[in-house]
Design goal:
Blueprint (H helix, E strand, L loop, with lengths): L1 E3 L6 E2 L2 E2 L4 E3 L5 E6 L2 E7 L6 E9 L11 H10 L13 E3 L6 H4 L3 E15 L2 E14 L24 E3 L6 H9 L5 H7 L17 E3 L2
Antiparallel strand pairs: 1-2, 1-8, 3-7, 4-7, 5-6, 7-10, 9-10, 11-12
């Protein structure tokens, strides 16, 4: 039986056509080749279990607590793999019954990754049985990531980084304004932005190597 682990608590019984197939649960190693040396292996993380159930829904395996007809039961099975009721994700699933995998024995949960209906049999105009192939993957709850506080740096969010230029031989404040800012009238703004230039005329030659902040 497959049962949702969250409300609404959908549950559907499925008769097995064969023993469920389980893969995964071990591994996670990646091998990296090294020219002229032996390869190295590093572990990138665990490998999920995958469970394949080849089953059938029919009236003969209809538990007493479930009085729905087969189409409704099939829809409930689909509901185990879909999100509903305003939920962000489909429900996780608990398996009960004849499953021998380690993940289920350890109390693990599953999520449905595929559901494929197969052969259908009708009797007296009603659906009597339907084969279903179900793919499940092991589920581990991931703690939601919450936003952290952003540390304020020395600069405020609205401040802009100031551009700094270095003077060359023969530079004047007016010449720097034309070269760096594209207008000679900006010389006064350069002098204002650099206290060391107080009293310097716009056409006075500057010492090479001075670092000037551009307005």
């Amino acid at each position: 039986m497959l049962r949702a682990n969250t409300r609404p608590m959908w549950q559907v019984s499925v008769a097995l056509r064969e023993t469920p197939s389980v893969t995964g649960g071990v591994g996670g190693w990646t091998t990296v080749d090294r020219p002229g040396r032996d390869p190295i292996a590093w572990w990138s993380g665990g490998v999920a279990y995958t469970l394949t159930i080849n089953g059938v829904l029919d009236a003969h395996h209809h538990p007493a607590w479930d009085d729905e007809d087969l189409p409704a039961r099939l829809q409930r099975l689909y509901a185990l793999g879909r999100r509903s009721g305003g939920r962000l994700t489909p429900p996780s699933i608990i398996l009960l019954g004849d499953t021998q995998d380690q993940h289920t024995r350890d109390g693990g949960e599953w999520v449905m990754t595929a559901l494929t209906p197969g052969q259908r049999v009708h009797r007296r105009g009603r659906l009597a049985s339907v084969e279903v192939d179900i793919e499940l993957a092991s589920y581990e709850f991931a703690t939601p990531v919450t936003g952290g506080a952003v540390r304020r740096t020395r600069r405020t969010a609205t401040s802009k980084a100031k551009r700094v230029v270095t003077t060359r031989r023969g530079d004047t404040v007016r010449g720097v304004a034309i070269r760096e800012l594209g207008q000679q009238a900006a010389w006064s703004a350069i002098i204002k932005a650099n206290g060391r230039l107080k009293g310097v005329t716009p056409d006075e030659q500057l010492r090479p190597g001075m670092r000037l902040v551009m307005p």
